[in-house]
């Protein structure tokens, strides 16, 4: 089996419950790729409540023969950033990742250097956050897997304080048909149990239960499903234990043009102005 990195633990369920619900904003995304492999992406999203527009332009260049990927971005808040990734150049399964950004107006900056090591049954990453407010911080996570079982952990260590800032643990079981997992985060104060099931080629279903023992004795539950109408169209729905209903619709109008519609409705207050809707349009050549 090929294990995911720690950040992608439970990704199938997270995508089911969060992606393709363009709620509360109108978003436009344009992707173009040049003949020599440079990809340009321009995004803009308008908040339906306050009218604020967030936009960004990004360029990405990949040289697969050298394992090199360079990404640059510049957003409307005047933050300029870059990322350089080098895969398998040092050794097989090793990836070097250097990321940084700067705000020219006030001089705020951040930078991170990371190293990944991946083999069929293990995926581990370590990084140093050079400009963290608390001083240099070392982040390390790892997942090991065998016969469908996954066990992972994540820690953050402050060099200045000589103390752990964060530690999390995850355990799960995965097959091509379904996945189950338990995630303990925020120093074992926040627990998530989840499952994702590919019922058949057209139907997916999943649910998660969350207990934050530091905030409440109650458990939050959310369930969702996806139904594929055809190769170009699918619909999604989700609902939680307080009655919030999410609906999503996605369709490829023509090659390179994808439309998404979404809404989040409070079923306990249907006659009040508390519902949110939105749309997204993605263009790609």
TrEMBL record:
<comment type="similarity">
    <text>Belongs to the eukaryotic mitochondrial porin family.</text>
</comment>
<keyword id="KW-0472">Membrane</keyword>
<keyword id="KW-1134">Transmembrane beta strand</keyword>
<dbReference type="GO" id="GO:0008308">
    <property type="term" value="F:voltage-gated monoatomic anion channel activity"/>
</dbReference>
<dbReference type="GO" id="GO:0046930">
    <property type="term" value="C:pore complex"/>
</dbReference>
<keyword id="KW-1000">Mitochondrion outer membrane</keyword>
<keyword id="KW-0626">Porin</keyword>
<keyword id="KW-0406">Ion transport</keyword>
<protein>
    <recommendedName>
        <fullName>Voltage-dependent anion channel protein 2</fullName>
    </recommendedName>
</protein>
<dbReference type="InterPro" id="IPR023614">
    <property type="entry name" value="Porin_dom_sf"/>
</dbReference>
<dbReference type="Pfam" id="PF01459">
    <property type="entry name" value="Porin_3"/>
</dbReference>
<keyword id="KW-0813">Transport</keyword>
<keyword id="KW-0496">Mitochondrion</keyword>
<dbReference type="GO" id="GO:0005741">
    <property type="term" value="C:mitochondrial outer membrane"/>
</dbReference>
<dbReference type="InterPro" id="IPR027246">
    <property type="entry name" value="Porin_Euk/Tom40"/>
</dbReference>
<keyword id="KW-0812">Transmembrane</keyword>
<dbReference type="InterPro" id="IPR001925">
    <property type="entry name" value="Porin_Euk"/>
</dbReference>
<dbReference type="GO" id="GO:0015288">
    <property type="term" value="F:porin activity"/>
</dbReference>
